[in-house]
Write a structure and sequence with these properties.
Length: 332
């Protein structure tokens, strides 16, 4: 059985990647800050086949030696770990975002070279694509579109800066050092959580359903956002790793929808929650083209299925009030 290492294994996306790898028969190495932290990583040990085929290693992105130990004997590395701020305001972007993303990616790739890893998939972000004011308004954004770094800095979009620079470094590294590196840029990721600690994009969806944490109370910007289900994204990551024809950069996005329409869809399916009542219009463009990824055979589930599974997960985890009306049956 081939060994594959997943960085940041206890995170939202990475936990699903680990789950899918285990279900497909892989031996899995996972890097985490503390393998003994049951609150953050205990859910990984409960996954099916984890006892026999999952090994957690203590390492963070700035720990080169720890990464080398985790990658030893692995034929592939799926680099998912990267800091995601819960708030747009980042007091120290260099330390909090840029160093872990850029230097961390360099450490990961150098450790891959040392371990003679055959293939690396680096999970970038749609934010490495979207922040580009010069892209034609009537044109979907494809893999040729990159975030304008200087513009992103000027509006303090530090997460976008960190992901863009890290992805650029990954692709340049591949050219310099003859390492097979694939990058994937997912849009906003939704879907059920496996991990116990709530992630940033789940906070966004929760803000659609209750006032707590929602800036302006019942008022919300009606902006266009792209979405993809965490399970569809995880399958895309494995597809890129396993498919010998994958190369370069891939966008991974399923739907683009305005906030008001998304909230209306949620409310029609799950009435009774505290949805926003007023929407202020905000121009924006968030049409990401996933044609290249679909060309490898990638597909995605209906948006309604993602919403249902996400909301049920929130209720089961105690993040939303129980007893609200649920649809008795839904077909997709």
């Amino acid at each position: 059985m081939k060994k594959v290492c997943v960085t940041g294994a206890g995170g939202y996306i990475a936990s699903w990647v680990v789950k899918f790898l285990l279900s497909k028969g892989y031996m899995v190495h996972g890097t985490v800050r503390d393998p003994c932290d049951e609150k953050k990583n205990g859910h990984l040990k409960k996954l099916e086949n984890a006892e026999e085929r999952l090994h957690l290693f203590k390492a963070d992105l700035l720990d080169y030696e720890g990464l080398c130990a985790a990658f030893a004997g692995c034929s592939g590395v799926l680099h998912v770990a990267s800091p995601v701020p819960a708030d747009r305001h980042v007091p120290n972007p260099q330390v909090e975002l840029l160093d872990p993303a850029i230097l961390g990616t360099q450490n990961v790739l150098n450790a891959c070279l040392k371990a003679r890893v055959e293939k690396v998939v680096v999970v970038s972000s749609g934010s490495a694509v979207l922040v580009n004011p010069n892209w034609p308004l009537d044109q979907e954004m494809d893999e040729s579109c990159w975030t304008d770094i200087e513009y992103a800095k000027s509006i303090e979009q530090w997460y976008a800066v960190s992901k863009t620079l890290a992805e650029m470094e990954a692709l340049e590294f591949a050219k310099r050092d003859d390492l097979t590196v694939i990058t994937i840029c997912p849009s906003l990721v939704i879907g059920p959580m496996l991990q116990p600690i709530i992630n940033t994009t789940s906070l966004l969806l929760l803000s659609y359903m209750k006032v707590e944490g929602r800036t302006g109370g019942d008022v919300m910007e009606n902006t266009e956002r792209p979405y993809v289900d965490v399970r569809d994204l995880s399958e895309a990551i494995l597809l890129l790793y396993e498919n010998p024809e994958s190369e370069g950069r891939y966008i991974c996005s399923a739907y683009s929808i305005r906030t008001k329409e998304f909230v209306a869809k949620m409310e029609s399916m799950f009435p009774g929650y505290n949805y926003p009542k007023i929407f202020t219009e905000k121009n924006g463009r968030a049409i990401l083209n996933s044609k290249k990824l679909k060309g490898l055979g990638w597909n995605y589930r209906p948006l309604e299925e993602s919403i249902v599974d996400t909301v049920k997960n929130y209720v089961d985890d105690g993040l939303l009030e129980k007893g609200k009306p649920f649809p008795s049956s839904l077909r997709f």
